[in-house]
Amino acid sequence: MASSSDQFKQAIPFHRPEAGIYYVALAIIGGFFLWNIFVSVVVDSFMRIKKQEEVNALITQDQAKWVRTKRYIERFPLISSKKTPKEPWRRYTLKIFDLIMKDSFEYFILGCIIVNVIFMMSSYEGESTKFGVALWAIDIVFVVIYWMEAVLKIIGLGWRQYFRDWWNVFDFLIIIVSVFTIGFSTPGQHHAANGIRLVRVIRVVRLLRRAPVLRALFMTLVYAAPSLLNIGLLLFVVFFIWGIFGMELFGKVVHNDGYGNYIPYDSNDGISNSINFENFGRSLLVLYRIATNDNWGSILLATGAHKDRCPDKKYLTTSSDGAFQYECGHFGLAVAYFVSFSIFGTLVMVNLFIAVILDTYSDNIDFEKRMVKLEPAAQWLSVWKEKDKEENGRIRGRLGIKNFIITLKESPVLVGLMLDALNLRLNIDEDQKESDINYDDVELIKKKSVELYGRVDFVGHSNAADIKVTVTNDHINAILTSRRLRLLCRLIHRGTLKEKLVIFYDEALFAIASLVVGPEFRMLPYATDRYVHISDWWEEEKEETAPTF
């Protein structure tokens, strides 16, 4: 347009530069503002539904509980400290244990991984033989370093403790792959194994353990995974429906460029041997091009080619497999098909991915605010570890139900928060009745609140004074009879002498955190022969005998 001169005349470069203003304005107003307004409407609708339902609109309750549980466990991980070796040669293994437990050792290995990746990046097609041999030798050096790391950790920690850590299992598998690739490569000609050698690059993931910012970004994707999976499945349904419609409407359209020219070869423009709706797979590929805005205008013109824009009748032959006869397209149907998919498939469904990422980021901020209130759970965690070791010999992440009650009794600050969430009193003075207090007297309320509630404020924040409070069965009874601690006891070793009810750490942490900081989730149906609600167990204990722990 900027080069047009006059009707039926040759174009002159930049003859009308003012015409460019129109396209710039269209790109800014149409591309930036209108498009993003549509995106904002989708995101706003998503957020409004979430606010009404008080949960993420794109995930199930089980998925929401999984995400919350992972968040809580990451903040309060049940990780046992590494045990010192007890082998006969303990004097030597202790030195190795001290070595591998140092941060400097971990940083050295991370540095080797980064340098190794850099050398792997330096390989190129047509490299000299000497350069290839040098890279091969350096490759062996790094593999030997990784093997030495594994051997030192196995000696220092022991086989059982070494393979109990998933990071060590991850590293060991990659080391085995590294040895395999070295064995099948030769100096200067190791490109055949490059595909497998690249697996070692995955070890860079170990940086997540030492880089909080990278770990936060990575965990954001992990927490968004259930929502993204659900949207992906919904998007596939949309693709499936429009793919079937595309086969029915345009599966017989003759191969053409939309301007009346027949295309007998593979082409990325128009309808051709590779781009068509003749089967379901190719229909999905065309829809992918539409969803990604990858030059689908020519396909629209080709599927809508009719009359003078349709190729000559001699090209309307029978397909190579004899299944159908080619025909011209229909412009109206093509416009309706492509525009409708652009709206539902691109503007709505694809932008839901953006809504999920924004929602996860917002949830991260909200979660951090809630975690400030849950800090007393750290004390409860330390008590759990001690009881876990006493009961199971090592930390197994589960406790007998009575030991679980003991962990609560030894965590008065956390119990105070749980009672606050239930609007119950923490510690009532034997000589003081609630009816004796004038709640209009602010000074008196402040004076008596420590005795009556275990804290000065009434908003549920933890207070150091709570640690002096003795948690009794009355406090535990108040929590459990409310039935708002939605925690199930699991029956293990059924039908044996070892049969007992246990509480798993992740489920207990989730139930307590949900009660204290919210949001609370309703209890889903469960198998009564394998699970018992902790409140039901408590009622049975009270009926049989007064619980004593």
From TrEMBL:
Which residues does the UniProt record annotate as the domain Ion transport? 104-363
What GO CC terms are in its UniProt record? voltage-gated sodium channel complex
Record localization: Membrane
Q: How does it sit in the membrane?
A: Multi-pass membrane protein
Q: Name one Pfam family in it.
A: Ion_trans
Task: Read off the SUPFAM superfamilies from this record.
Answer: Voltage-gated potassium channels
What is the protein name given in its UniProt record? Sodium channel protein type 9 subunit alpha
This protein's species is Reticulomyxa filosa
